[in-house]
Design brief:
The chain has about 300 residues and is of the alpha+beta class. The protein has five helices and 14 strands. A hairpin with a 2-residue loop joins strand 13 and strand 14. The longest helix has 15 residues. The protein starts with a strand and ends with a strand.
């Protein structure tokens, strides 16, 4: 998914379906059930279904209104990478015999009075920006070599990294497992070691060596992110819906808070100085062969009279 404002790319989330599903998995029961009400597919005269959903966009969850006159919004979606992946008829194999039509965007619009509109126009004419702070997800996919231990290094020029989420997958999925909804766990009965490092700083200082400790750090990340949001936690994230059984099977998510100051936005670690992100892992699993890094980063959108800038 890509979000553009004034022709400038503001958000670019690769493997969007997996990132969206991960965020849904990390929601509380009441948030998740409310989303199900919104996205429930409705039959239309027996010819198809209508689906409604809210995009996982940080620009749409921050608390400021976006002046469309100076920064028009565009959304680009790559629905699936494989046409047979999302649709499965009851008792039958997956099918690619489907189409998408009548696509609509529905949003709330606030109309300003002339006095306030003139104040905004005067502010921009003086060369001053309208800053909008928001969070966004950045995802990258990596191959995990056979052997169950190693280092994965990732480099990206980001000034503020708030949190990092890591998930595993494998290509030999069965049943209803897909790339977007399969967060495979390592063998819980064998030793594990996980540790993230940004520059010289390690998260946590001592390696996580059990699935219980991984879940504890995931809960810590949620608690630390909660004060940064407008209402509730960032994107409504909470691991409270994940049961022990699902966490040890197909809902295994590593989450680490990387803010320097607790309960403070824009205090994440800076990777613009050339620092790289390294993830050290050791586990037992014959199936895991891919790993996804999902970074939650702080961004600033600046709307000016001359155009739009994005500070990352």
């Amino acid at each position: 998914m890509r979000v553009l404002c004034g022709g400038q790319i503001v958000e670019d989330i690769t493997n969007y379906g997996r990132v969206h599903e991960m965020a849904s998995t990390l929601k509380s029961d009441h948030e998740y059930n409310a989303d199900l009400v919104e996205t429930t597919m409705a039959n239309i005269e027996g010819t198809g279904v209508r689906v409604c959903f809210k995009p996982l966009s940080g620009l749409l969850t921050q608390n400021k209104l976006i002046p469309l006159r100076y920064g028009s919004l565009s959304f680009e979606f790559e629905i699936v990478s494989n046409a047979k992946e999302p649709v499965k008829a009851a008792g039958a194999a997956n099918t690619e015999n489907w189409v998408i039509e009548d696509v609509q965007i529905k949003a709330s619009v606030c109309t300003l009075d002339n006095s306030l509109e003139n104040q905004i126009a005067g502010h921009l004419m003086e060369g001053k920006p309208l800053p909008i702070n928001f969070h966004t997800f950045i995802n990258s996919k990596h191959v995990v070599p056979a052997g169950g231990s190693g280092l994965i290094q990732y480099t990206r020029s980001l000034s503020r990294v708030s949190a990092v989420f890591i998930t595993f997958d494998h290509s030999g999925r069965t049943g209803d497992a897909r790339e977007f909804n399969h967060f495979l766990a390592p063998d819980k009965d064998n030793p594990v070691d996980f540790q993230l490092q940004i520059g010289s700083k390690k998260f946590p200082e001592m390696k996580m060596n059990s699935l219980s400790e991984v879940y504890s750090k995931l809960r810590d990340a949620y608690r630390d992110l909660k004060p940064l949001a407008v209402h509730g936690s960032v994107y409504g994230l909470s691991p409270s819906k994940i049961s022990r059984g699902s966490f040890e099977a197909n809902d295994f998510i590593i989450g680490l808070n990387t803010n320097k100051i607790e309960n403070s936005s824009f205090s994440g670690y800076n990777m613009k100085d050339g620092s790289s992100m390294t993830f050290e892992y050791k586990f037992t699993s014959a199936d895991i062969n891919t790993m996804n890094f999902t970074i939650l980063a702080d961004m600033i959108l600046q709307i000016r009279n001359s155009g739009v800038d994005v500070l990352d």
